[in-house]
Specification:
Chain lengths: 504, 160
Amino acid sequence: MLEGLLIGLQTAFSIQNLLMVIGGCLIGTFIGMLPGLGPMSIIAIMIPVAISIGDPSAALILLAGVYYGAIFGGSTSSILLNAPGVAGTVASSFDGYPLARQGKAGKALTIAAIASFCGGTIGALLLMIFAPALSSVALLFHSPEYFALMVVGLSAIAAFAGTGQVTKALLMTVLGLILATVGEGALFNLPRFTMGLMDLQSGFGFITLAMAMFALPEALFLVLKPRTANTGDSGEIKDLRISAGEARSIMPVIGRQSLQGFFIGVLPGAGATIASFLGYAVERNIATKEEQDQFGKGSVKGLAAPETANNAACTGSFVPLLTLGIPGSGTTAILLGALLALNVTPGPRLMIDEPQIFWSVIVSMYIGNLILLVLNLPLIPYIARVLLIPRNYLIPFILFFTLMGAYIGQNNSTELLLLVGFGICATALKFADYPLAPLLIGFILGGMLEDNFSRSMQLYDGVAFIWERPMTLGLLTIAVILVFLPGYRARRARARAAGVADGD
Amino acid sequence: MALDRWIALVLLGICVAYGYTAWFTMDDSLAPFMRRNPIWPSTFPKILSVLGIVASMIILLGLEKGEQKPGDIDYRRLGEYKVGQAVALLGLMVAYALCLRPVGFILSTALFLILGSVILGERKWHVMIPVAAVATFAVWYLVQEVLGIYMRPLPGVFGV
């Protein structure tokens, strides 16, 4: 591990990569503050830039920097304006905005900065410990297990989608898989489902789809329903200090939430958003009575909990990506797509074949967190000015960057028409409350899923691999349970609510 | 019928069409020696079409109960939103896609940015035009010179 760390330090401390971290964090923070642009959209917009860098470590460092920056920037606008730029920071506004209203905006931002820093750093430490361990287990996996593992990952994403959303998430995943089969097939070089169109021969571009699923609907929502943020209170930012008593009270919160957030982040489907809400709920439940009354009215603990948890979860979500090659969230799915485009296949071999990529990303996490801390404390008053860009200028630029992203990736203007078409579909799906992240995850995993499935079929001359390999069977059973569990629990809950006896 | 079920109906149609291709028409072009393979190009799509049809039927028939939560934006109040602007911007994007090659990057991008602001109700021409011009040149310079991706800057008639 020490050896790896040294390789990572060597790579991450090159001038180019340091600039990448700094640039990524700055870009992420600035764009993350804008309401309506989440980390997924920002990373999707940044991918063409990252790919054209060419060096996979530098590209991944840049994108990871953008990721932390976006979560960080989101908390700034949550606290100052009660307009969360990112779903993962919604919970930060519960207590952050009341604090800002009380004239303690500076204090709130300081707490957010420190909590994020601790969450991110502790998360990176845990990642360093757990990733190699998981990676050595993952080497036991063969094609059938990979296939089964991806099925588990996809069903977990659907299963954690929330009440009444499981089938929708499942349908979106299947739709993503269906879109992935368009173009030339995995083992046979036959065009499939191209409807005779030459432009579809190579399949849909993943950047096009990512832009259409996230950036475009969010921009259109901004047009449809202008969010009115009241900027009245954010003018003065003073009193950055936190007292020793406050520091003592948030210390245990930060410790607990770093661990909890990290492990929630590791789970597929659960990401920074769930981690932050759960962190907030847990801390409120275990707080003393008088502290509980403070929650929602500007509690220091209530702000520290989600801020720590969401940053730790961001780091945690890198574990399945880097060790198994399976993204747990929409954001890491986009990162996976970028890595594949750079000819790097994340998975258990990554640590052995290309240790400099693996370790430089971990080292860059420390650097990134440090930079965000330095950035956030003194620059806050200036950063907040970004929020003053009028939307009449902002929206055309967002649309233009989505178009450019799709165009640069493929150099094909048909791709732009596809982008608009998919964007309209995605907006309709978003209206009807269909989750869009599963679609993209399905699309990205689709190719690999089919490859591994086909390879297993050929090795075993049929579907025998399902019952001849115990691990495959076990994983597929877990997948089935995951899909049916939410429905079963909902039925039980309804039965109990209706007063019907439930056995125990 | 609620919008999510209408969408489920549309998706069901897509899955049925996809499934029809996978089950019935796709294998016709398969070479005879390939038929001895345990896996065909249509195997995976067949599984997907079944899953897709089942999932969309469940939503269509409303078998999964979920609580209605007020979303970020409500389609039932679509009339109160600025639909016109959104549609106009989408039209502008299509126009941009069609113009990018023949008209050239610089002109079409500058026009896109200016018209985009105009659609959103901006009328400060003295701010809008310089901002669009500077942004266009900056992006073109970045893409062309720094990233090395070729973009035709001027209309095709100039032969560049």
